Amino acid sequence: xxxxxxxxxxxxxxxxxxxxxxxxxxxxxxxxxxxxxxxxxxxxxxxxxxxxxxxxxxxxxxxxxxxxxxxxxxxxxxxxxxxxxxxxxxxxxxxxxxxxxxxxxxxxxxxxxxxxxxxxxxxxxxxxxxxxxxxxxxxxxxxxxxxxxxxxxxxxxxxxxxxxxxxxxxxxxxxxxxxxxxxxxxxxxxxxxxxxxxxxxxx
Length: 203
Hints:
Helices cover about 15% and strands about 45% of the residues. It is mainly beta and about 200 residues long. The chain folds into two domains: about 10-85, Elongation Factor Tu (Ef-tu), domain 3, CATH 2.40.30; about 105-200, Elongation Factor Tu (Ef-tu), domain 3. The protein has a seven-stranded antiparallel sheet. A six-stranded antiparallel β-barrel has the order 1-2-5-4-3-6. Strand 4 (about 45-55) and strand 5 (about 60-65) form a beta hairpin. The longest helix has 13 residues, at about 190-200. It is globular and about 45 Å long.
């Protein structure tokens, strides 16, 4: 489990292709890797991946399957900056919200406008995720726990608006977003379970 509070921004330093996927070398000089070992989980822009090799105090490797590459954005190109969060431990403060690290879909940046020192980010989500998005609800964008301000249904999905403060822009990769960029989305875990429970009541 994760919280959606980004701990550092790393870079895909190297990408090696192998049958069935790719091995990524992640350079993370600002992430404390002292307590990270083989088999540990780290979220990469919202996608939970397993550490398969620890190279030194600042670099490690993960394997990303073809299926994961198909379902996510931003893990297929050398030089890409990725938001990093180590898996939470019992007793850690839940600063964001409960995040599984499983990407539910990929959205598209529609607007990214300055509003004073902040930025107004508008993302178009696919139709399959529309019913899980609500005003003042939680959503994860590239691994960052955020709150929706506006949710509007449109043809083929929905568009939701988020206000990004300068701190979030500075400590995550969201500050470099451009119109047309694809972003990883994870819907609220509680909303997922509520839908399941309500569906069972109808049977």
